[in-house]
Backbone:
């Protein structure tokens, strides 16, 4: 019953309020709870871009130097940090950090994207906003080599202590070459002539 | 008895007592105590194996937390170098005769992690293996089958990994040192085991 009723309510509201939308930003925000949430955040943070992907999924793009400021602001609406994921854009020479936030009160999932250069990648830590960020930042540090300033736990690689300088999820990490040197070449699968190829 | 050479004393366990050996083998076969090193996904198969459905205790098998009292060493999944250090130390702590069963494709040849930077590809380069169960993941029936196989092997004396480990210790030691670097026992293992 609830499922059927809700769209009707929203349709009615849409007819009344299209005047407010052009005030905010270029991409039109739909007049749903997601749209209102984005508009509310963007009002306080005009340097960011935001749009609604679909129901319960919103997206922000923030310049890297203001990310902390933005997340502090966003944490009022989005109480939970789910994950910090990193995308390695090798050709552009950039890392894209995606802070995934969850709003417990509104049930909305937000991606906060930001890009930083690959060389000497540095970010301020967000541990003071969400303490759980400690773990995610450590993970990003281990796999991609991003340094989060202020995080005390950026230690050596947890699984393989002897190769600290390796960041295995970077796109330019030669995985197969590494495997060959570490585990030996005497496997049929790595047979380049493919005479004994297993998979 | 006092004339017995030192050498003989060390190899005492390798000798066979012709008369009682069949009895010993039967007894070993019927009372396998498992040291389960549940490293990966295969650990999930241990609870159904132990509980009412497949109930391995009817074969005289018992899960056992202490390596000093174990016979059968179960490696149930992918092995990372970090885990392999613990596995080797645990294996060396176990009494002879000891049998190793590896469980799933991962320890055999890397499985789905075949080009992963952090999974050991061939487990039998580092420790001798008696029975390997293929599959990703093998069901509890397959594990039971592997256990039956190891029982057969104990009975006809072909489950001799513990002997092979002694005889080819240089080979295994060399592979271990290649992977971990020289002196890993002193550096790492001493942190967990003070007496090494
Ligand atoms: S063989 Fe399959 S089930 Fe077993 S540890 Fe590897 S991935 Fe997991």
Residues:
């Amino acid at each position: 019953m609830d499922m059927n009723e809700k769209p009707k309510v929203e349709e009615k509201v849409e007819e009344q309020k299209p005047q407010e939308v052009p005030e905010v930003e270029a991409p039109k925000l739909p007049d749903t709870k997601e749209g209102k949430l984005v508009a509310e955040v963007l009002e306080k943070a005009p340097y960011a871009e935001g749009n609604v992907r679909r129901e319960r999924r919103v997206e922000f793009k923030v310049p890297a130097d203001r990310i902390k400021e933005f997340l502090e602001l966003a944490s009022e609406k989005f109480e939970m940090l789910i994950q910090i994921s990193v995308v390695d854009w090798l050709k552009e020479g950039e890392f894209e950090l995606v802070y995934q936030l969850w709003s417990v009160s509104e049930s909305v999932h937000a991606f906060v994207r930001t890009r930083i250069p690959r060389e000497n990648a540095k970010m301020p830590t967000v541990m003071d906003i969400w303490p759980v960020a400690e773990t995610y930042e450590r993970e990003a540090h281990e796999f991609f080599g991003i340094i989060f300033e202020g995080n005390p736990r950026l230690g050596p690689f947890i699984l393989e202590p002897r190769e600290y300088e390796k960041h295995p999820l970077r796109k330019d990490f030669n995985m197969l070459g590494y495997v060959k040197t570490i585990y030996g070449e005497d496997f049929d699968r790595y047979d380049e002539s493919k005479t004994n190829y297993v998979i | 008895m006092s004339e017995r050479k030192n050498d003989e004393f060390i190899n005492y366990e390798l000798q066979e007592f012709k008369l009682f050996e069949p009895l010993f083998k039967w007894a070993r076969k019927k009372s396998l105590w498992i040291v389960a090193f549940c490293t990966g996904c295969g650990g999930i198969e241990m609870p159904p194996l132990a509980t009412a459905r497949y109930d391995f205790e009817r074969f005289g098998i018992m899960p056992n937390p202490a390596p000093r009292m174990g016979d059968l060493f179960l490696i149930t999944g992918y092995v990372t170098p970090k885990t392999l250090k613990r596995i080797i130390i645990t294996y060396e702590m176990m009494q002879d005769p000891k049998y190793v069963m590896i469980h799933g494709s991962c320890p055999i040849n890397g499985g789905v992690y075949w080009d992963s930077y952090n999974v050991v590809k061939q487990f039998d380069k580092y420790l001798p293996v008696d029975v390997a169960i293929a599959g990703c993941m093998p069901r509890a029936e397959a594990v039971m089958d592997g256990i039956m196989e190891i029982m057969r092997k104990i009975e006809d004396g072909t489950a001799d990994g513990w002997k092979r480990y002694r005889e080819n210790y240089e080979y295994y030691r060399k592979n271990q040192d290649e992977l971990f670097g020289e002196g890993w026992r002193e550096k790492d293992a001493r942190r967990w085991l003070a007496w090494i």
User: Anything to note?
Assistant: The interface with chain A takes residues 80-82, 109-110, 114-118, 120-122, 125, 178-181 of chain B (CB under 8 Å). The pocket of iron/sulfur cluster is lined by residues B 40-42, 77-78, 104-106, 111-112, 136-137 (CB under 6 Å). Chain B has a mean pLDDT of 83. Residues 29-191 of chain B form a domain with the Rossmann fold fold (CATH 3.40.50.12280).
